[in-house]
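Inputs:
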Amino acid sequence: MAICFLSPAKPISISPLIYNKKPAVIRCNFSLPTITTTEPEPVFTSVRSFAPATVANLGPGFDFLGCAVDGLGDFVSVRIDPSVHPGEISISDICGTHASIKLSKNPLWNCAGIAAIATMKMLNIRSVGLSLTLEKGLPLGSGLGSSAASAAAAAVAVNEIFGGKLEVKDLVLAGLESEAKVSGYHADNIAPAIMGGFVLIRSYDPLELMSLKFPEGKELFFVLVSPDFEAPTKKMRAALPAEIGMPHHVWNCSQAGALVASVLQGDLVGLGQALSSDKIVEPKRAPLIPGMEEVKKAAMRAGAFGCTISGAGPTAVAVIDDEERGKEIGKSMVEAFSKEGNLKAVAMVKRLDRIGARLVGSVPTR
Amino acid sequence: MAICFLSPAKPISISPLIYNKKPAVIRCNFSLPTITTTEPEPVFTSVRSFAPATVANLGPGFDFLGCAVDGLGDFVSVRIDPSVHPGEISISDICGTHASIKLSKNPLWNCAGIAAIATMKMLNIRSVGLSLTLEKGLPLGSGLGSSAASAAAAAVAVNEIFGGKLEVKDLVLAGLESEAKVSGYHADNIAPAIMGGFVLIRSYDPLELMSLKFPEGKELFFVLVSPDFEAPTKKMRAALPAEIGMPHHVWNCSQAGALVASVLQGDLVGLGQALSSDKIVEPKRAPLIPGMEEVKKAAMRAGAFGCTISGAGPTAVAVIDDEERGKEIGKSMVEAFSKEGNLKAVAMVKRLDRIGARLVGSVPTR
């Protein structure tokens, strides 16, 4: 990754012409309010940031509750680049083990780029050009908030290079510009990617976020098992029911409440139980991922407190309070994907990330 | 009330014949498990209990979240009565300011009676007969959990006279027998009436309850404004939508989560906001109560943190952190009921009850 960070920048200038030709993208740059009244000076010549993977659609927390996962995520490096037109950003490199080949270096079509542009707009940056390097630690389309991690890392990096003038909510708004482009206007990945821990999206207009603090001193591990399978996004969306019967609505609402209470109380048994209790989305989506239903059963048999689909899949997520037991659970889940779904899968056991996107390196301007 | 307590018992014997003739009622007496293996001895000759009013259907907490209200509720007195057939209970008197004339003294058709019988059954009482006096402090059909308060007070009184062998969950189950008879198998009134505070009903089979602790030292007042109007129960039920669109489902789920978090964090502003945010039930029911929509607006204008319908109405409930401000809010709400709904209304300002049903008097057996 160090090599990636140090690779020479290949600026892509974003001319006003491009904006004019692509009105859908203009929104990224012009729909957001300018937060700072005066243009801030850069305080670093370069920064490097990290943003964690996230698990959204947490069972009954569908579309409004997500959490961050430690030790797994994307890095973004941003540096002041005199060769880039002032007020613009270029993506100099995209690297990493995961499918970077699929990602565009055009900042208008790249999650990190869109979020970086939105952040620059909010900061009112007009005099400095930036170049950005994206290091993908997350696989694309796995249900682990890959796009949100890139956007979160970029928003934080741009904000920090100019002295961190923006608030967390502004950074989420910047990241939302990117999410809206790639996966819909949903904050349940981008908010925890930026804020860490569990985040409840209370409303979008205005954006209201609730950070749900899982008690310090309590351990929470996620067993993340990703099968070698492309979850058909269109099918996953089409599987969602348009209408929900009152009994299922009441049930899922009560489980959502129980999930929130369990998080705040650090009740892992209750959290797992709530996570596993979705009667609306998971029952429709699980059959579209070969083996998923058996994988969940295998996780529970192996001692997991709960298990569901991470995001829109195909990753399965189980929760446990012990890393070693997590590894055993992961093994059982991988076996079930193989036996019942005929899919190869890899398991990881990761802690709850309590911090969210952060600076991991910087070079001061003087 | 003392007069009521001391009024002479008029036992109504419940013969097995009556059970046989009314199979719907048999469930009250025979569907519950016997909890105690040996029949407990009475430890008091008489006891007196109190159970508080409750506010259920808390906005987005529809059908699964309720809370108890201090200083407002029903009293039940129970005494060992040799003139009552062993293992049976009679209702000797029903008194109080609120519509006691409507209530049956047949224990099989009275909330307190059904809950008392269920509790006796769980305790395996075969050798002692009881007589019961019900003092109604709550109006019927007001949306303040009147039936649940009677049932809760009766269950606690019977349990306590035999030494308090049953657990809280058993008492809720006993009370549920009564609720099932009068208003459906919903625990969102009976559970907080017995347990106090906020209670989330997590599941019914098995019954799982979560007590949500509102932080000590934080004040929470309910402004309860009851108009002189009979909420048409059938209409109120018929108004509920059978199917709910996904966006409204997600919205209400997120608000339910926010409500739970606000309760646990003692965030009254957040609690009020969530309480007011229901997009599914309240918008359908409020128009059936003359003036309700304007009453809510009046409460908010007067400074309430939130306002919704209590239970199925017609009482409106607003929340605030100060008693005096609560009185002002209540005044505004009463005025709005008068002006917009052409209804007389009375306002009360009451604290959150954190205790639930309890013994308030007893006479030991020796």
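The radius of gyration of chain B is 20 Å. Flag for discussion at group meeting.
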